[in-house]
């Protein structure tokens, strides 16, 4: 997820409030002004006594030539670099993306520049610091930054097994986002294969729809999260980031409001995609659905060998949720 910081130097109450209301991650402030912003809401502050400290956690570097580019490239990789382009040329930014790779942000003056920065070289920088006195530009830039998402490669998987199991603990993920038909989360028994499990956004005669919910599966399963990480369903809690994916592979970050774990009758679904197995233990109920290649929901209770559903496969193994290149067997 791309980052949005707002530069509020000199301090402006209206700009600080707009930053907070637009969902910015942080505000850059004059030293000692963190308390002024925190009276309006919770947001990270960037100043000498703030949550993010210049010179410690982040370096602001003016870029006017090759020497400045080299200075930015030499900053430790774990520290964020904010580039302030004095003549607004693109080449130094492209060079630093190639040399440094991550933790690069660029100060911009409007939403147009912000859009260019998050799309540069396809990958884009990690975020922007917007310096403007225009509240509307903050809102426009926030819409652009929040609209940038990971594109997830989905594959068509062929069902091989759909069988009834006994009772088990399943996790129901209630998010702070209303999903629509064709959207859900990627869930799997292993970190190498995931099904796109449909949200409860479809009405039926027996229970009202819950568009904010994904009845995800058994507690041992993984969900694919923002940034390519995985998390156990059992570990998810209120406030955690989760990733919503639609049938075209478009993703967005959402926040968990509740993880309901309850005993329910379970079933095992297995499939194969591009020679790789995908499996998941889900609740055995007609309201639990996977997603077909056309984006339509398919109830797990109707699945049979040969049916086609959407999934996602990974090649690398996982260690504490992070991808690692190692030999790993999961069955």
Architecture overview:
The strands form four sheets. A seven-stranded parallel sheet has the order 3-2-1-7-6-5-4. The protein has 331 residues and is α/β, with parallel strands linked by helices. It has two domains: 3-147, Aldolase class I (TIM Barrel); 155-317, Endonuclease - Pi-scei, Chain A, domain 1. The protein has helices at residues 13-21, 34-38, 66-73, 91-99, 111-119, 135-147; strands spanning 3-7, 26-28, 44-46, 58-63, 80-85, 104-108, 127-130, 155-175, 183-190, 193-198, 213-218, 222-224, 230-232, 241-246, 251-273, 276-283, 289-291, 297-299, 308-313, 317-319, 322-324. Helices cover 16% and strands 40% of the residues.
Beta-strand residue percentage: 35-45%
Structural class: alpha/beta
CATH topology of the largest domain: Endonuclease - Pi-scei, Chain A, domain 1
Determine the fraction of residues in helical runs and give it as a percent range. 10-25%
Mean pLDDT figure: 92
Radius of gyration: 22 Å
Under CATH at level 1, the class of the largest domain stands as Mainly Beta
Order of helices and strands: EHEHEEHEHEHEHEEEEEEEEEEEEEE
Number of helices: 6
Supply the CATH architecture of the largest domain: Beta Complex
| Adjacency order of strands in the biggest sheet | 3-2-1-7-6-5-4
Overall strand count:
21
Shape category: elongated
| Low-pLDDT stretches | none
């Amino acid at each position: 997820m791309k980052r949005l910081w707002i530069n509020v130097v000199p301090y402006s109450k209206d700009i600080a409030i707009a930053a907070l209301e637009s969902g910015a991650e942080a505000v850059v402030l004059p030293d000692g002004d963190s308390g002024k912003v925190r009276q309006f809401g919770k947001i990270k502050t960037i100043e000498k006594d703030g949550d993010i400290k210049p010179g410690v956690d982040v370096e602001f570097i003016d870029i006017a030539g090759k020497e400045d580019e080299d200075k930015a490239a030499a900053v430790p990789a774990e520290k964020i670099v904010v580039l302030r382009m004095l003549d607004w040329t693109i080449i130094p930014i492209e060079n630093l993306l190639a040399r440094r790779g991550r933790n690069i942000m660029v100060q911009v003056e409007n939403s147009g520049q912000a859009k260019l920065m998050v799309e540069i070289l396809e990958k884009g920088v990690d975020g922007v610091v917007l310096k403007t006195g225009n509240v509307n530009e903050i809102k426009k830039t926030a819409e652009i930054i929040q609209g940038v998402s990971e594109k997830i490669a989905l594959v068509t998987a062929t069902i091989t097994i759909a069988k009834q199991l006994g009772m088990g603990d399943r996790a129901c993920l209630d998010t702070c986002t209303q999903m629509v038909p064709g959207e859900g989360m990627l869930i799997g028994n292993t970190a190498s294969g995931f099904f796109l499990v449909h949200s409860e956004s479809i009405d039926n005669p027996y229970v009202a729809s819950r568009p904010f919910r994904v009845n995800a599966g058994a507690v041992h399963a993984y969900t694919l999260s923002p940034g390519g990480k995985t998390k156990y369903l059992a570990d998810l809690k209120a406030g955690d980031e989760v990733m919503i994916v639609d049938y075209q592979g478009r993703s967005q970050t959402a926040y968990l409001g509740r993880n309901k774990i309850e005993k329910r009758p379970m079933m095992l679904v297995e499939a194969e995609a591009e020679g790789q197995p995908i499996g998941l233990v889900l609740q055995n109920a007609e309201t639990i659905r996977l997603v077909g290649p056309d984006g339509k929901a398919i109830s797990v209770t109707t699945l049979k060998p040969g049916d086609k559903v959407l999934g996602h496969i990974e090649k690398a193994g996982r260690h504490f949720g992070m991808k690692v290149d190692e030999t790993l067997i999961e069955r």
